[in-house]
Write a structure and sequence with these properties.
Length: 300
């Protein structure tokens, strides 16, 4: 059993890598030294700073004294999610690692990463200071994105940390517009044509599946009638998001705990089966004084 436990310990970092690869919002993950843990495991402290502006310099009395307000705002985690699965020992008698790797990897890909994205994007959309509802076509999508860029520019949002998240339909409109000069990369001898849009005006472009890119969701509890399948579904009043321009400095998203646990058939008291648990404790917030760092285009 010691060898199996060692393999499990080595596999946990691979699950983290799997999350980063599958989650579209993971590009906004930023480790901040300013975030403080509280005595309460359910919350963290994030600073909010307010500064006074310039005043007239007095040649007799010198500088006008200014005040700086540094307030540590408590942000409480609200998303504590989990699931458990069992694999019968006889179904998995050849090797437990195959089943564990297959189950856990598929669970991250099809359930964990999409739910993280859905929660984060809907949260950011609901808190954004700049939001517009519009019908996009290949003829107006570039102008719409330019409006978003101009809005953030005018609000003096830093240019170097912006990410442009685009729905799949909107991404296809971008590729079809005549306003962009299409670049065809043909590899010698292969005939491959590459039309991917990876950056736009210096910003990273991230294509987001439509199922993860709506304004509101219901996150099923897994036990209430009609919610037994768990996961998430669009809220009845949800609208599709065309694109979202986000400054990394405007948001904080933290996965406090992403814990896979594996129990052998001998350890499992419920059945003669391998047992896989997964708990995800996380949340995402938009900073109060940086809400203008998010621009959301919502489908009309």
């Amino acid at each position: 059993m010691a060898n199996y436990i060692e393999l499990i310990q080595k596999y946990v970092p691979l699950l983290d890598a799997k999350y980063a690869a599958e989650s579209k919002s993971s590009v906004l993950d930023v480790q901040s030294d300013l975030i403080r843990e509280t005595a309460n495991a359910k919350s963290v402290l994030i600073p909010k700073m307010v500064l006074q502006g310039l005043g007239d310099y007095d040649r007799t009395n010198g500088f006008i004294k200014g005040n700086v307000t540094l307030e540590w705002v408590t942000h409480t985690f609200t998303q504590d999610r989990g699931r458990t699965f069992m694999i019968d020992a006889m179904d998995n008698e050849e090797t437990a690692m195959v089943a564990f790797a297959s189950l856990s990897g598929e669970f991250i890909r099809t359930q964990v990463a999409p739910e993280l994205d859905a929660y984060r994007f809907s949260t950011y959309a609901s808190k954004a200071e700049n939001s517009v509802q519009e019908a996009l076509t290949k003829d107006n999508i570039i102008a719409a994105i330019d409006t978003a860029i101009g809005t953030l520019d005018d609000a003096e949002v830093p240019e170097g940390d912006r990410v442009l998240f685009v729905s799949v339909p909107a991404y296809n409109l971008m590729k079809g517009t005549n306003e962009l000069v299409k670049r065809f990369d043909v590899q010698t001898g292969s005939g491959n044509v590459d039309r991917r849009i990876e950056t736009f005006d210096g910003m990273q472009v991230v294509k987001v599946p439509s199922t993860r890119f709506k304004t509101a969701y219901v996150f099923n509890d897994g036990k209430t009638a009609g919610q037994e399948s768990g996961g998430f579904t669009p809220d009845i009043n949800a609208k599709a998001i065309n694109f979202m321009l986000v400054s990394k400095s405007a948001v904080v998203q933290i996965v406090k705990l992403a814990l896979p646990r594996v129990f052998t058939p001998e350890q499992n008291q419920e059945a003669h089966a391998w047992k896989f648990d997964y708990r995800l404790y996380h949340d995402a917030w938009v900073l109060d004084n940086k809400k203008n760092g998010i621009y959301v285009s919502i489908a009309a």
